[in-house]
Structure formats: C-alpha cells, structure tokens
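User: I'm writing a short methods note and want a consistent example. For UDP-3-O-acylglucosamine N-acyltransferase, I'll paste the sequence; you return only the structure tokens, no commentary, since I'll be parsing the reply automatically.
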Amino acid sequence: MKFTAQQIADILEGEVEGNPNEEVSKLSKIEEGENGSLTFLSNPKYNPYLYTTNASIAIVDKTFVLEKEISTTLIKVDNAYKSFSKLLEFYNEVKNNKQGREAPHFISDSAKIGDNEYIGAFSYIGENVVIGNNVKIYPNSYIGDNTTIGDDCVIFSGVKIYSETQIGNQCKIHSGCTIGSDGFGFAPNEKGEFKAIPQIGNVIIEDHVDIGSGSTIDRATLGSTIIRQGVKLDNQIQIAHNVEVGKNTVIAAQTGVAGSTKIGENCMIGGQVGIVGHLTIGNGVKIQAQSGITKNLKNNDVVQGTPAFGYTDFNKSYVYFRNLPKIAASVTNIEKELNTQKQK
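Assistant:
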C-alpha cells in the first residue's frame, strides 16, 4: 500500500516541502531510513540524520529550519511526534481493516452480530451472544454464551471469553487473554481436601479498555469483577475474582491483584507488583515496580518496596540498606570498645 506526500499531508493537516507526489510504502527510523520509507524528526539530537537519511519523506515541525539542501521531501506539521503517532493509528486501522466471515467458524443461531463485522477462521460464538457494530474477532477466538461485546471492539486471535462477560465499546483484547475463568476459590472439607467453590459471577469490562497479551481476568464468586472505563493493562497480568480496577488506571506487566481488592482511579502500578486481597487502594496512587502491597493505601500515596512504604522514605532507607555490613561492623567495634572500657 502506497501513499503520496500530499495524501499524508492532508491526513495530518500539514504542508509539503518538496515533491508532493513522492511515494512511500513503509515506515522507518530516521537513522535507518530507506528509499520508499517515511520517517519523522522531533528530537533535536537526531537533526544530523536528516541530512544523511535515505527516507523518501520526513515529518518535521513547522519551526524546523534546514541548514543545507536535502533530497528528502518534508511534511511540516505543528507537532511532528503527535502527527507521527496519529499516522501510526491511521496506518494500523487501514492494515487491520478486515471484513466478512472466514470459514470455518461457528456462530450460534441465537447470536446477534452488528454491521461491518470480521469473524476470523475457527472462531466460536456461543448462544445468545450480542456483538455490536464494527467488531473484529480474529481467528481461534472463543466467545462464551450470553456474552455482550460493544461497538468498535477488537478481539485478537486466541482470546477466550467465558460466558456472561460484558465488554463495552472500543475495547482491545490482545492474543492469549482469558476473560471470565473461575476465580481461585477452594475450601477444605472434613478430610482436608480442597473443594472448588462455584464461581457464578461474571466480568464487566467498560469502554476504552486495553488488555495486553496473556492476561487473565477471573470471574467473580458472586457479583462482578469490574474493569472500569479507560483502564490499560499490560501483558501477563492476573486480576483475581471480585477485583475492581478504577477508571484510567494503568498496570504494567506481570502484576498480580488478589481477590476482592479495590483499586482507585488514575493509579499507576509498575511491573511485577503483588497486591494482596481485600485491600482498598485510593485514587491517584503510584506503586513502583516489584513492590508488595500488604495494606490499604490512601489517595495519592507513592510507595515502593516489600512490604511497600513511602517512596521518599524508601530511598532514604536504601542508603542504609546498602551499608548494613559496614554499619554492623561499626556497631560491633563500638561494643568491643565499651566492653574494654568496662573491664578497665
């Protein structure tokens, strides 16, 4: 797929400086630019590469001034970085603009599917499923009975969505995710054997949620596990039963949240964080990577460590952590001197 400089400038509301008919069919870094590729320049330290790149078209700020002549066609915009991001979104939409139903697939007679759908090969759509308009379901996906999926959602290949799950509009669920599997609920009987407690709740995912590859969100024991509007989950995250994640919270990879914990709005949680169950995490909380959360956190707390405590206190304490052997040796020497003085 090829685009001219003028077509790209029209999309970005920019101005062409050079050949408006110059064509590109791929994207590249400015330092690795090839003929027929499009690149961008926003960081001044990369300015020298503009004069050596082989990229056919480069997006630059309107304020950028050339120091010497170049053969690359420029598209001048208000903000090169934002414009390039916008172009990537447009490119992604065009690239993934699949439609129709591939064979083989199974769609229950009771399922209702909106307009402009894409159903990939080997997909299964169960009874009483309701799917909105412009939804894309990639191959090898499973949509369980009584599930609802809103408009403009993308379900990538290999996703398994269990029954009764509710998904809002404009959500993306990446490959290998499992939504609505049983929560980890077991109780010992008189013989000491652990028996599963039926998990009869569901999962609710509100609008504009992104869920990264390989993540798992368990259904509630009773009620719902809820992922609120605008939440962004990285790859390989575990959300346990009856957890609630507040709107616009972001969670990095390999984090695990235990059952019935409530996480507030606009939180930022780093990678490999572990949060125990039945806690309340306030709004605007920031948790540094690899922290272990064992108690409730108030609004706007910033914590680190295991068990986690205040980020500033952690950094101050870490100076002492690193010097513990020296401190211990000093204490031992002081004790020896004191003992010597007592003997004298």
